[in-house]
Amino acid sequence: MEAYISAIILGLCLSSMALGIFMSMKIFNIPDITTDGSYTLGAVVSAVMLTQHIPIYIIIPTVILCGAMAGICTAIIHTRFKIDALLAGILVMTALYSINLTIMGRSNLPLIDTKNIFSSLHILSNSNYNSLIIVTIIIAVITTIIAYLLKTDFGIAMRATGNNSAMVRALGVSDNKMKIFGLAISNALTAFAGFLITQNQFYADINMGIGIVITGLGSVLIADALKSVFKVTSLSKQLLLVIAGSIIFQLVLAVTLAIGVNPNLLKLTTALFVLVIVVVTKIKSSKS
């Protein structure tokens, strides 16, 4: 049971990244690969600052700002220099590898006996359930903020940019600025996921972001499938489905390990799982 609680906690931590990918892919229709780098950036900045005993209330805005800057770099390369969004993301992701390694000064930084957000707040005596309550509250606050933002005039302009950028320009709104804001928010959420994961797993590693975009993509695709099944149209409910998708994704991996699949094959299992979701969704779409 404890293993599945840990999987739920991990899913909730990663749901911040899933929400970021939802922003870039579903709101702006931009395949942003910066995720791999900005996720690690959030983890690295958090780990370094935690080892320096810097307060959490300073670390959080710093991590969010760093993630946002990574997204802004990708957006500027894409919008100002007219480089394909996928290539722009790859360029920034590659650059972030060196930046992250420079910030951390080593390839791996353990956080054993380091005070963090989960150990600082004592709601329940059981550490697993305590972490579950804390991360649930954090993700609930983030989701509420995003849901509110997307329903404001600014949020509606962002959503319109993804649907029809030509119409947005005709209305006097800069679609390029909307994309910059959108990718900044997306990567800020991704970096925040790195912040949570680092404290949950007690270490930061330079390679922890490799392939993490697949996990976020899988969560969003699960949310898409659930959206079709339950006929969800509300934006707030779609955000909740993304969070549910992230949890389901981690539970599937937990079950995979529980039935005896070799941990070395976990990445292969992840890729196949996402492939199955994509194929099933495509088949369902073609039939409807």
Question: What is the domain tally?
Answer: 1
Gyration radius (Cα, Å) is: 19 Å
Taking pLDDT < 50 over at least 5 consecutive residues as the criterion, the unreliable ranges are none
Structural class: mainly alpha
Which percent band covers the strand fraction? under 5%
Estimate the global geometry from the Cα principal axes: globular
Number of strands: 2
Q: What quaternary form is this?
A: single chain
Mean pLDDT: 92
Question: Could you explain how this protein is built, in words?
Answer:
This protein is mainly alpha-helical and 288 residues long. It has one domain. The protein contains twelve helices and two strands, in the order ααααβαααααβααα. The protein has helices at 2-27, 35-51, 56-80, 85-104, 117-120, 127-151, 153-163, 165-170, 175-201, 212-230, 235-258, 266-287; strands spanning 108-110, 203-205. Strands 1-2 form a two-stranded antiparallel sheet. Helix 1 packs across helix 10. The protein is globular. The protein starts with a helix and ends with a helix. The model has no long low-confidence stretch (mean pLDDT 92).
